[in-house]
Every structure is written in structure tokens, then in C-alpha cells.
Amino acid sequence: MEYQVETTASDYHWLSASLKNLPAIKALQGCLDDEVELFMPVDCERPDRLRADGIWLLSGTIDGQPVAVGWWDFRVKGGSFGRSVCRRFLAFLRAVEQRHQPLLLVVNSLGLRFMEGRTIFADVFGLIPALLRFKRRQLLVTACQGRCLGFGALVFGLGHYRLAAGTGATLSLTGPEVFQLFFGQRIAFSEVAATEAEYHRSGLIHELPDRLGDMMMRAAYVLKYLGGDRPLPAIPYEEVAPGQALTVSSLLQALGGRALEVFPGYDSRLQAFVAELGGRRLGVLLNPPGQVNNMFAFRSLVLYREALQLFRALRLPLLVLLDTPGVDPRFDGQNQRVLEQLLSVTEEVINYPYRKMGVVIGRGFGGANSLGMPKVYGAEATYGLAGLQLGVMHHSIIEQLLSGSAPLLAQWNAARAEEKDDCSDVVEAGILDGIISIDGLAGVVMKTLFATSPPPLMEVG
């Protein structure tokens, strides 16, 4: 095809091109629609790998949904951050923001271009505040496709949604050569820097597809739905008989039947979704109903925090569906920081700027109730699903703890005698706004989060 030049600034312009004619970024084929625009120096009138200087900056579409992409080309100067690269990147961010496009950054970089010397600091570090400004206005998805080293690791970490390829990819503040200079052979760089190791020890990586192609298709899928306003995918229909135990699917069906899970597989005790009810979107956090071990552990709380930050960026109201026996009290292994993470999440919950509500769908015991959107934390409303269990601890545990003190046990039994099996005492105290059925869930959510009545139920063909 003919390459067309559209000048948008004195130093750079948009250059129309076809992905099938750009072998350096062939991994984007199948993820983006074929026609793209490259952001190149103004005197560059054809796609040029060397002039791209280690990073291809472009605008395209995913099934018609506009999106901008930064693709690091490791074969050109290690995809490093040099002065000219960073200046073009800054101009690109401004142009993309004017187009109101979400941004995908696929990082494969050695970090700073140290051959240019220390005078590059201002140009390179200037990308951080620029990206922070951008992500306050638009969705930013980042992906690690090979090496995210040094400054590249910092750029990766700024994404609202962060993916990494699991096979052969590394994420570290330095490369293997420098690592070995300081620490020798006694510590294997591949073990500490592998993305799979990072995925399991921190919240830096949200998803870990095994291969690059899988990662790119997942990134495109997330951007396709979260980067615009097209209807979310319909969840598989599940026949629910009266009185049947709740499932994740039946809860999502009760909320309209359209949802996209975010950060799938990150934790077994908590799941996060962007759902759609009556044509409006909301963020949903839920414990898989009926699952015995739903205690909030460190990793559960990390997922809670990361989901809140994503929902906040998407400007979504928030619904929490709680079924938990409490917070995991063990201080071993990764769970050593559970208390620190609980305090961090609590602050995020209180400061969440959009409408929020909670529904206890099963168990709600102890301090974990603070994660179910209590009204004292600014929730618009908090409800309970019929059959819920609510308390400081399960009564059998309290009875066992007080079995050695007759006066205290008597005092507890007197307090318990005031509790109603249907939790009407909690409603009367104003802690819950009411007890609802699963069929009434959509109605209270619409009324509370969107101040309107629920839409008709979806017809299932």
C-alpha cells in the first residue's frame, strides 16, 4: 500500500502502514486490525526499523476499538531508553491522550541507554510523571514480552493491568551480567528474575500466560472490552433450581449475565469482574460462594487492592459479595505481611471515590466484614442474602473459648439470645439495610449504585 504522511507536530507525524508489511512487529498481527498509523520522526516517510530506534509507537484498532501501542524492539539497541526515544515517546503520549485512546505497552528492554551518558536522566525519568498523568485519564495496559530490565521494569509496573509471558521472560532492576558482577554465581539470576517467580511472590504481575502469542491475545481481549464501551461478553448460562447452592456463575447471572473476569487465577479465595447490568458497568469483587477456605490471605488482599485500582481507573461503582470466615491470621511464608496489606486495603476501601456497596452472601465473620463495604466506610448500602451467617466469630468457637469461665459464657449466651436467626437484629441496628433473595440482587444494586430500577431479565435463547 502507499504510505501516507499526516503531520501533527513539528518533529513527528503519523505514518499510515499495514501490519503485514512490518515484520519487526509481526507479533501484533492477529491482535490488531491490519491498518495502523506509526508515530515517526517527521523526515521519515516510510517505516524504518532503525529510525524507530528500538520502540515502535503506533495507533490502530482491535475489532474497530481504537487503541495505541508501544512495542519495544530488542534487536535495535536492546530496546533501550535513549534521549531521542524518550522525547518521541512523550510526544506520542500527548497525541494519544488527545485521541482518547487506551494504551498498550509491550516492554522488552535493557533499560537506560547508558552509552549516551548521565545527561539522559531528565529525558528518561520524565517519562514517569508523563505516564502517571496519562493513566489518570486513560487505561494503561503493560506487558513483559522478554526482558524488562532496569527502567523497563519501572515502566512495566505503571500499568493498570500487567501481563507477562511465562516462558523465558525476566523482570529485574538489572541484567544478568551486572547481577553476577555483584553476587557471583551463588544466586541464579534466572531464578530470582523469572516472571513466574515474580508472579508468585508479589502483585506486580497480574496474569502470566505461558507464551508470547497467548499474552498478546489476552492483552487484546482485555483492551477490546475495557478500552471502550462495547457490551461485555455473555457468561455461559447455568440452570439454577430453586434452593440450589450459589455459584459464581449464578451470581453473575443475577447481575445481568455479562461480565469479564480480570486477573483470573491470581487467587483462589477472591475473584474480580467487570460486570454489566442494564447497560451500565460496575466492578465486582466476590468470594466463591460456599468455598470452605475463603479466608483472606495476603495474596487475596493484593488482588483486592489491585482490582480497586483498576476499577477506580475505569470510574466504576463497586459491589463486594462477601462469603468468608475471616482474615488468615497466620504469619508464615508470604502471609507474613497480611496485616500490613489489610491496613492498606482498608484505606483504599474508605477512599474509593465512586458509589460502593456490599452484600454478605454467606459468611461474614470478624474483621473481614470490613472488606464487605460497611456503611461506616462510606458504602451507600450493605445488604445480606437470606441464610447469611454474621458475627464476630462463629458461635461454636466463642463457646469453646469461654468454656473455662462460667460468668463470661453466661454473658455471651445472654448476648446471643438477643440475636435473631434471620439477622433482623442487625437490620434494626442499621448495620445492614435489609435481607434479600438472589432474585432481588439486581434490584438493590441498580437502586444503590445507579439510582434506578433493574432492567428486564435477559432472555436466554
- Total E-strand runs: 17
What is the multimeric organization of the chains shown?
Answer: single chain
What fraction strand? 15-25%
For the biggest sheet, the summary is:
9 strands, mixed
Q: Roughly how many Å is the radius of gyration?
A: 25 Å
CATH secondary-structure class of the largest domain: Alpha Beta
Shape: elongated
Tell me the distance between the termini.
44 Å
Q: What class would the helix/strand composition place it in?
A: alpha/beta
CATH 2nd-level architecture of the largest domain? Alpha-Beta Complex
Name the poorly predicted regions. Answer: 1-8, 457-461
Helix content: 25-40%
Number of helices: 16
Count of domain modules: 2
Query: What is the CATH homologous superfamily assignment of the largest domain?
Result: 2-enoyl-CoA Hydratase, Chain A, domain 1
Write a structural description.
This protein has helices at 49-52, 83-99, 121-125, 127-135, 151-157, 176-183, 189-193, 195-201, 212-226, 248-254, 298-313, 338-351, 395-401, 406-417, 424-428, 441-449, and strands at 5-7, 12-18, 35-41, 55-62, 65-72, 103-109, 140-149, 161-164, 170-172, 258-262, 271-277, 280-286, 318-324, 356-365, 381-385, 389-391, 435-436. Mean pLDDT is 89; it is low at 1-8 and 457-461. It has 461 residues and is of the alpha/beta class. 32% of the residues lie in helices and 22% in strands. It folds into two domains: 5-225, 2-enoyl-CoA Hydratase, Chain A, domain 1 (Alpha-Beta Complex), CATH 3.90.226; 235-449, 2-enoyl-CoA Hydratase, Chain A, domain 1, CATH 3.90.226. It is built from 16 helices and 17 strands. β4 and β5 form a beta hairpin. This is Acetyl-coenzyme A carboxylase carboxyl transferase subunit beta domain-containing protein. InterPro entries: AccD/PCCB (IPR051047), AcCoA_carboxyl_beta (IPR034733), ClpP/crotonase-like_dom_sf (IPR029045). Residues 50-394 form the Acetyl-coenzyme A carboxylase carboxyl transferase subunit beta domain. GO terms for molecular function: propionyl-CoA carboxylase activity.
